[in-house]
Amino acid sequence: MTVYAYAESTSCVQEGTLRFHLAHTSRAPARGTVTVEDVAADLPMLSERFDGPLWTLEIPADWPSSLYRAVFTADEGFSEGFSDVYFVVRAARPNSPILLSIPFPTWQAYNRAGIPGESIYWTEQPNRAAKVSFDRPGGGPPPERWEEGMLRWLGPAGYDVDYCSGLDLHDGAELLSGYRLLVVNGHDEYWSAGMRDNVEEFVRRGGNLAVFSGNTCWWQFRLEDDGRTMVCYRDAVMDPMAAIDPGLTTVEWSSAPVNRPENGLTGVSFRRGAGTWGPYMQRMHEESYTVRFPEHWVFAGTGLGEGDKFGQGAIGYETDACDFVEVDGVPLATGRDGTPPSFVILATADLRHWHRYGQGGMATMGVFGLGAGTVFTASTVNWGNTLHDPAVDRITRNVLDRLSSRTGGWEIIGGVGTFRALTVFGSRLYGVAPDDSLFVRDVSAQNLRWQRAGTAPQVVAMATPREATTVHPIGLYGLTSDDRLVYQDPEHGWITIADAPSGGVGLGMVNGEFFAATAEDLWRLSPETSEWALVDSSGGAVSLTAMNGRLYVVDGEGRIRTRLPVTTPAEWTDLCDAGGCTVLTAHAGLLIGAAPDRPLFQRPPLPDL
């Protein structure tokens, strides 16, 4: 006799009750034994009898938030006579800054795959179902158990996390508000509009998202029958919602009429990714990632260098990627596929040869800012099952540690270099090296290479006006070591336009006026005069810049200080740690700093957390 069981919900809060429905192939009443185990901890939690078509679990307050498995075994005890049901116990109140989501929608989508009318798989089968119910057995993890490795790693690795069902995110704004970091793990392919809206808003408001998953947020689905029916036509022609509210049509997120690429949430997409299926799935174990930005905080402590391979086997059978181009040997996201411009590529895997096994493409691990929050993506389904790899372990810890705390601060955006002056002109970052060479690269969080762009003789500080005035055209301006104010004329090179305060260390431009700093004093030069006027103390400046009508200095104590560019004395307000930088510029709401033999880095001009 075979027993069949399902739960009335995929999750239940601590001290709540969860009811299970039972049936079997015999006409006799359903009787037997039920055991409940904590899947993540691999611990038995309960064993008791069931008798009849219903069994109710009263969840104790001391059961930890986790993924659980209830196993129902009929009295007959035949090996085929059991049914297992997976469910999550949610924390009654946040017990951790980290919330991990279990992809029950994806598990249900694959339930009874290939059976006509019973599953929304396979994708192109004409007799696939458009609607499937959670009120039926099955809907547990797939045979490959993409999620299991990370679930079993977290506790022994020292991470006490809270769990939720992916369905809890559908109306989950309040749930998410209690956490710093949401973790998506394994294979989280199916997202409702409510899930996506709530997670995106969570990140924009300052929460963070770590996607240790691949093929993520690929299909949109809807819920009906109080959330117990999953709707996914996979075809706008068949979906009646296409004529009512096109944005809720159950097709791929990037497809018409939804036209909302998942890149906006994850930075990547399976459209540029790769897949190897069926008898070729084992090909994934042959592949590795290649490091493309070793200075980034994600790789801290790994010992990996540029071009090194790591994580063999972490490249799962499905990967995600963004559209990118190689610029002087550095991958740069183009944004043509909907990837945000702040996306930074950390590692890549060239899987174009997979076109023989399913889908050729790439895998691109990356990180980007979304509103006030940060999103990291590993871009592969098998990451969590490769945590025995020291590099994968270290990277995962770096992501969890940083994104689950209120760290803020400086972030590396380029390799090691030495510059004595920086400024931004247009969208280009300019730097002057100790040998007077002038270098340029795009302003980007990607680790782009510097390109030589001429010389800047004796220039020790630079600035660029926000816009041209009748007196000063837009362009590069500088202070020199022999106390001159210079301008780089497009036709004649660097020309002197005025004398400068002796010992200048920083230059800024605000509303057509120059401000120069020495170690002791702050000076001002207006367009109407050629004489510098003493304004106030410089606050012990080492460097100075300006942005959005405000002055910023690095002082001798390693702090960033700021004040308004008024012509009378004013207090320099302590803002944040300077991160060791000795040269400062600013652009688009970010401070950009450099120091001898250190990487280039940036941060928002906000107080330290």
Write up what this structure looks like:
This protein has a nine-stranded mixed β-sheet with strand order 11-9-12-14-25-24-22-18-19, sandwiched between helices. Strand 7 and strand 8 (82-90) form a beta hairpin. It is elongated and about 100 Å long. It is mainly β and 609 residues long. The protein is built from six helices and 45 strands. 8% of the residues lie in helices and 40% in strands. This is N,N-dimethylformamidase beta subunit-like C-terminal domain-containing protein. InterPro entries: Class_I_gatase-like, DMFA2_C. Residues 55-388 form the N,N-dimethylformamidase beta subunit-like C-terminal domain. It comes from Streptosporangium carneum. It holds the Pfam family DMFA2_C.
Largest sheet: 9 strands, mixed
Total strand segments: 45
Q: Percent of residues in helical segments?
A: under 10%
**What are the segments in which pLDDT stays under 50 over at least 5 consecutive residues?**
none
- Percent strand equals 35-45%
Q: Determine the structural class based on helices, strands and strand pairing.
A: mainly beta
Cα distance, first to last residue?
61 Å
Q: Work out the helix count.
A: 6
Mean pLDDT: 95
Backbone CA Rg: 29 Å
Shape: elongated
Strand order of the largest sheet: 11-9-12-14-25-24-22-18-19
